[in-house]
Amino acid sequence: MEVIKTEIEGVVIIEPRIFKDARGYFFESFSQREFEEKVGHVEFVQDNESMSSYGVMRGLHFQRPPYTQAKLVRCVRGRVLDVAVDIRKGSPTYGKHVAVELTEDNHRQFFIPKGFAHGFAVLSETAVFQYKCDEFYHPEADGGISILDGSLGIDWQIPTEHAILSEKDTKHPLLKDFESPFRSCFGFIV
Q1: Among 86, 82, 64, residue whose Cα is nearest residue 74
Q2: Which residue numbers are catalytic?
Q3: pTM above 0.85?
Q4: 104-154 pLDDT per residue, tens
């Protein structure tokens, strides 16, 4: 696998080595050993999958301490724009984001460390999205910031009038009204 660094330290794009022939293709979608060598030590404990239609926007989600989550995400069918927003108070990149297109054809994965809000928009007719988490889901720790917050400068590639959001996702605060539960000290979450 190749690890592509982004503008925000710790947020990386992963491109697998794909072996293709007349029968199709094969790739190793996850290796704990290689992930630890190239990205860092993370113990994933839960895998999730969602299916969504064009225009669905999910996010921007996170879990509050002590149940913070790092995620490794990918799109196995269709096409999504995936985004990580730094919500670590005191971080030099607070409020900044990284966006990457994940598709069934590029097989890219996106690693989102703890201290980031995460969301995606479906750009194809349908999309199947999978992700690994290093902490179990805790509904009482749910948090979010508005996926439509214009101050974040995210081009979701979907006209706002076509955006489909859950009721929960329409109620998240804007970043300016948000009190982050995360603090950054020399790149570490405290």
Answers
A1: 82
A2: 61, 131
A3: yes
A4: 999 999 999 999 999 999 999 999 999 999 999 999 999 999 999 999 999
